[in-house]
Write a structure and sequence with these properties.
Layout lengths: L21 H37 L6 H31 L1
Helix pairs in contact: 1-2
């Protein structure tokens, strides 16, 4: 059994390198873009929840069964769209 030294050759590693390559710049840009998109999605979800709460408070007890069903369907659909967007962003981050 042969033992190799714990250190590596400086020719092989590039730790501490201050030069950026187009690949790292593209990756950093993609990560920043994904983070900004996720933040925007979270803000949109918060705004949708706030708007739904205002509508519920303003029309408390006045909605018919059909209107309540429509509101419930829309809420689930919006939640589905947000979860779909977030899963796409997670997959994007895994690929990068």
């Amino acid at each position: 059994m042969e033992h190799f030294p714990a250190y590596s050759s400086p020719d092989i590693t590039n730790e501490g390198s201050t030069t950026s390559t187009p690949l790292t710049e593209d990756r950093n840009h993609a990560i920043a873009y994904a983070a900004a998109t996720a933040a925007a999605a979270e803000a949109a979800v918060a705004a949708a929840h706030a708007a739904a709460r205002v509508v519920r408070l303003a029309g408390h007890g006045r909605n018919s069964k059909v209107e309540k069903a429509a509101i419930l369907i829309q809420s689930y659909y919006r939640g589905y769209l947000v979860s779909l967007l977030l899963s796409i962003l997670v997959k994007l981050l895994i690929i990068i």
